[in-house]
Amino acid sequence: MAASPVVERRRSQRRGAARPASERRGVRALRPGEAMGLAPLLVGLTLTQAVVALLLGLGWWGAALALHLACCLALPLIRPILPEEGWSGAVARLLLALLPGLGPLAVLGALAALALGMPRRLRAAVPPLPEDPLDARLEALATARPGTLPDGLLLESLADVLRWGHAGQKARALDIAADPARPAGAALLRLALGDPDPAVRARAEALRPAVEQRLLDRAEVLHAAARGAAGAEGLATQRALARALDRAALSGLLEPAAADAARAEAAGLWQALAESAGPAGDAEAEAALGRALLALGDLPAARLALDAAVMRGAAGEARLAWLAECLFRARDFAALEALVQRWRPALEHASRRGATGPEAGAWRLWLSATQR
Amino acid sequence: MIQGAAGALVAGAWLGPALAMLVGLGLLRLAGAEEGFLLLLTLVGLSLLLGAPAAVLAALRGVVAAPLGLAAGATLLLGFLLFHLEEVMPVRQALPAAVAAAALAMLWGGLGVAAGLGLSPLPGIGAGLLLAGGLAFGLGGVAGALWGLAAGAALAGFLAAVPAAAARIRPKALAGPAACGLALALAVVAAPLVALLSGGPVMALTLPLLVALPGLVLVALARSLPPFGLASGLLVVQALAVALGLLLGGAPAGAGIVMPESLALYQMALIGAGFLPAFAALQAVLLGRPAPGPAILSALLLAVLSAGLGPLLTLAAPELAAHAALVAPLLATGFAFWLVLRDPEDAEEDPA
Questions:
Q1: Would the CB atoms of B66 and A113 count as touching at under 8 Å?
Q2: How many whole angstroms separate alpha carbon A120 and alpha carbon A108?
Q3: Is residue B302 in some structural domain?
Q4: Across residues B186-201, what is the average pLDDT?
Q5: CB neighbourhood size of A327 (10 A)
Q6: Given an 8 Å threshold on Cβ–Cβ distance, is A91 in contact with B106?
Q7: So where does this one cross the membrane (chain B) (predicted)?
Q8: Alpha carbon B127 to chain centroid distance?
Q9: Radius of gyration from C-alpha coordinates of chain A
């Protein structure tokens, strides 16, 4: 089966292959920009320069020069409040650059440009993406609407920037990761907290409280919802709460005590969900319960839950990895070898595919060891 | 880099000032002023010297606001110092002359980036011409004509430059394109400037440039440049125009525009101007290359020859002095031809 465009793009990025020039220079719509941000500035400058023109007309050269110079001296103060993007931003930048040299004529040009608006042919044209692949990736991530980007791709892309980017790129990646509209980005902060660059660590530490609070707030909202819900709706709310607690506990951003408390509460919820599922079982609940118990150090209970989840059908590499870790920590190497033999085809397939998870190396090692 | 702007930039370096002179003369006439040719020549030359580096920079590298602002500010200051302190003009004339030069410097940049983006500057130029005509007619006098020129150029230039500022193209190396622009401006103004400063026959050297305008328009409109094919074609077309000009013979002298004693120089300059479009086509190819060295070199050669060959021949062999107006563009075109020939990729005919 042919790979989807998203998968192809990820592969291409992973290989570091340059995108074709046509794609790099692809067009996207320019935002026309809001003229309202420019209005007060333009009115002020227009009035001042109209007075300058009047003084010139009267032949009061000294007064006109003094007023024009005062206007020019005020320009550095105006610059920070200018709109950055769009047509009005461009008009403002050009106006400020030309005002010292052209005076009232620059204002005249700016008014005409705002009145006529952006040329139709330019509306679809934007500059090429930055030449630095990491800058281009950050640009694409920043402009992608939240929710349109798969969590895994977002994390992988931002992690690449943290791994290979310079300080400025890392700071921008952290800003994107900390955006409340992109909850998956929170996982990146844990990586940034261990960055060798002290500036990146400091930035991540600064962002951490807000992200931590957001995770706890989300759980609190679901707590309130779960209290008043019953029946099928109650189960669905419980599941959402358990997921939120898991996400908070696994984020690595919570204090250890708070993380353990979240994990313990999540384990209770998952157990209740697994028990309420009946004979058909609930693979997600059992796997999550096993992971939580594994993290809490209850290895026998974790093994039971993970065994049940794996044997229920769709094992998944992650669940196999948690079970393998459980067996390894319990020093039950015979069971671990049996697990590898049982799932050898799936694990070999993943290895051939070039899986790059944290457990990929361990799987390769176990596969070669059990072959011998 | 913005593609396709090189031909418009190089040809525009001659076309823009020539058209600005014509518009300025028209505005002076509309305002009822009798004199002003030399004033216009000076302010247009000044605007080109300071505006062309900014224009090439803006068109090739996409940086717009800062270079245009710098060019306009510097032109205003220099222009005012030149016209008020050096030429002892009253403030009411020196100020609009300096502002007009600054607005023209900005206009060259605006037209350059508009060519680079493939946008038509004609609506802005039309609006500018209307405004200029209205102001010149309303205010009257030399000052009125100059305020009209300044306002029209500022309006047209601003409207042409804003789209490039909105596109926010990432700047790269800046020194090369700026040097190219300065060399190009020097090549354009060298001969009239030397004639103006030495009290020589300015009209005999500037009037023949009109012969080159059709060829330069062709170069400006060419979006891809097959250098040798285009240059050869232009030489043929220009040869016809020059022959027509020579047939007219002493008509300019008869009309009193050119002094009878400068007629030989005028005729040589007429033949020499025939090479300018071919030179511009080759120069555009050089300007489109990543390395700016050859483009700077060929433009500087034309500037040096145009400025120095005449006085040198006057000292060495006065009877051959008029030939400088022919030899300078001829040698510069040959040199540019050789520079283009050195790169086989550029020298090939355009496959399209």
A1: no
A2: 22
A3: yes
A4: 84
A5: 23
A6: no
A7: 6-30, 37-58, 64-83, 95-117, 129-162, 174-196, 202-222, 234-258, 264-288, 295-314, 320-341
A8: 22
A9: 29
Banded model confidence at residue B172, pLDDT cuts 50, 70, 90: low
* Last residue of one domain, picked from the residues B172, B192, B221: B172
Interface contact B158-A61, CB threshold 8 A: no
- Residue A261: how many CA atoms within 13 Å on its side-chain side? 7
Interacting residues of B4 by C-beta distance below 8 A, sequence separation 6+: B115, B116, B118, B223, B224
Of B172, B203, B232, the residue at which a domain comes to its end is B172
* CB atoms closer than 10 angstroms to residue B268: 21
Task: Quickly count helices (H) and strands (E) in chain B.
Answer: 16, 0
Q: From A239, A263, A234, A249, select the one nearest A187 (Cα to Cα).
A: A249
How far is residue A49's CA from residue A68's CA, in Å, rounded to a whole number? Answer: 7
CA atoms within 13 A on the CB side of B159: 23
Task: Provide the residue range defining the domain that includes B321.
Answer: 179-347
User: From A119, which residue of chain B is nearest by alpha-carbon distance?
Assistant: B163
C-alpha distances (whole Å) from A240 to each of A257, A271, A299 are: 22, 14, 25
Residue A43 lies in a domain: yes
Residue-number span of the structural domain to which A338 is assigned: 315-372
CB contact under 8 A, B168 and A90: yes
Which amino acid is it at A307? Answer: D
Digit-coded pLDDT (tens) for B213-259: 888 888 888 766 666 677 777 777 777 777 777 776 666 766 667 77
**B186 & B163 share domain:** no
Cβ neighbors of A45 (< 8 A, separation 6 or more) are A71, A95, A99, A107
A102 closest CB neighbour out of B72, B92, B162:
B72
The DSSP code sequence of B91-110 is: HHHHHHHHHHHHHHHHHHHH
How many CA within 13 A on the CB side of residue A185? 27
Q: CA–CA separation, B71 vs B87, rounded Å? A: 22
Å between A180 CA and nearest CA of chain B: 29
Give the nearest partner residue to A87 out of B74, B154, B166, using CB atoms: B166
